[in-house]
Amino acid sequence: MAYKVKLDIFEGPLDLLVYLIERAEMNIYDIQVAVITDQYLEYLDEMCYQDLAPAADFMVMAATLIDIKSRMLLPRRATDDPEALTEDPRSELVDKILEYKKYKQAAELLEQQAETAGLVFTKAQEELADFEQEQEYLLRLKIDPLMMAFKAFLDRQRRRAEVQRRYSKMEDYRMTVRSRIHQLKNMLTGRRRVRFTELFVSRPDRYQVVLTFLSVLEMIRRKGIKVRQDVNFGEMTLTPTKALAGMQFDAESEFFNDEAG
Hints:
Blueprint: H1 13-23, H2 33-49, H3 56-73, H4 82-86, H5 91-117, H6 129-139, H7 143-166, H8 177-188, E1 194-195, H9 206-221, E2 225-228, E3 237-240, H10 242-246, E4 247-249, E5 256-258
Antiparallel strand pairs: 1-3, 2-3, 4-5
Helix pairs in contact: 1-5, 2-3, 8-9
């Protein structure tokens, strides 16, 4: 790999020439070689003044410019060859500058694309053969099962709409502890003992179980019944006492009192 020297803001002699030409707003096909040569030599003198040894390619370009400047000052000899009369000493330099600008622009474009690519994150390709096979399998399904399934779906939707149209929702009647105690008193009166599960006519929900249990606790506190449970978590047996008959309970009142009271 060749050693690359970058001086100041210029990477080489052609870069310096392009800068001088663009700063002077010259036509690249009609370069004022005398002016550019003087400016180029002044730049080399400035480099030497700063104790920077110009690279060899800068010195070669300086010699080339001086040579072109000298040939531009020489009078052209008359000749019968029309190509010799139209030959321009600057043509070779112009071609080099144009080629340099073309590659420099391409390099800047590649650098921009590299910066943009650095902001893009890609994902590795995945194997999708399994999904493709499943898709082919779905495409091989017959139309009859699909039509039957769709018809069944429409029937269910139609029945659901019919039920929703005719069904009127009613609020569940929620009993209170007072009402439940009133019911239990009527159920226990005249009976010797009753199991807890017999207090329910049908399969109870959680609310009914909790309500009944609280009512039983209140009746125990009032000494209207006695409860026995032989084992933990076993069946409870309720036995009415004499005080149950004397308990006065109004389902619409918040209180119930003993007959003695």
